[in-house]
Amino acid sequence: MRLSNMELLRIISMLMVLVLHIHSLILGEPNRNEIVANPMISISRVFTYYLTIIAVDVFVLISGWFGIHLKIKKIAELYFQICFFVLIFLLFAFVSGQSGSVSIGGILGMLVMGNSEYWFLKPYIMLCFMAPLLNSYIEQASEKQFRMTLILGFSFLIIYGWIFPESTDWIQHGYSLPCFIYLYILARYLRLYPNKVTTMNMKVDFMIYLSLVLINTVVGILLIYFGIDIKGRNHFYFSPFIILTAVYLLLAFSKMEFHNKVINWIGSSCLAVFLFHSNQFFFNSYYRKPINTWFTHESFLVYFVYTSLLILSIYIISILLDKVRLYIWGNIVKE
Fold this sequence. Notes:
It is a single chain. The chain contains 15 helices and no strands. It has helices spanning 4-26, 32-37, 39-52, 55-66, 72-95, 104-111, 121-140, 143-163, 177-192, 202-225, 240-254, 261-267, 271-278, 280-297, 300-334.
């Protein structure tokens, strides 16, 4: 049975991806001149970035909170979902007269997730494959052994993936399987072994989350203003500050108790938002281009309204398309 509180968090994490990509892949962070000329707009952009950079960490933590139970049928369904959205984009390119921009190599890249825009799926699927082994260890290990595994693993990944990232490129700042594994087992530990830090009031968790976002924002603004180069360490998915921010948002939502059929209905399809939005054919022509235009030529208020409507439209279209996919998949499985 789907828990609506965590489904809502899953929905929000996908919304965060849409917003994050505006600030990380389209507009970028403001420079010093922008901060001086438009401080409020610049601060809001940096704040929004740190509000949403936790999206991937949150999504993986949710999987760890419940535990992944590997089923070949689920993996097959995921690959069918990828193929379905690739077909959608091919049809869209043909109808819009842009079929010439789609190559055989590009199609194959999307199907086998060889393109960089689907990077998340590769370590996540491998995490699913490893879940039975991880779950077995978690069930058999003592709390002390489990805690030591987390301390040693996180120490290694933070030292070589955050403090000295140049020395160990396979950690990839958090964009990798080892980081997904440790986020997964961290969430399992938090759920299986609650303590004073994790069982605080939901409002306290939210306050800690927002406080961490504000701290990251202030640090981010100061780094830009004074021209301090820390090689992007404040942007790494495996930054301890980013992980901690994601953890407290997870803990806050875990303490909600409600059931909502609409939220569960949307949550079951929210991965479609990532598949639809991240495809380069769609992203460059129908996301990057209009947002750049609005930000450059319109007032900030107009840009904000237009962009919000675009994000909402993408979310709704993605969910509705995935419901068609689910209907087709249901009929295939029945046969």
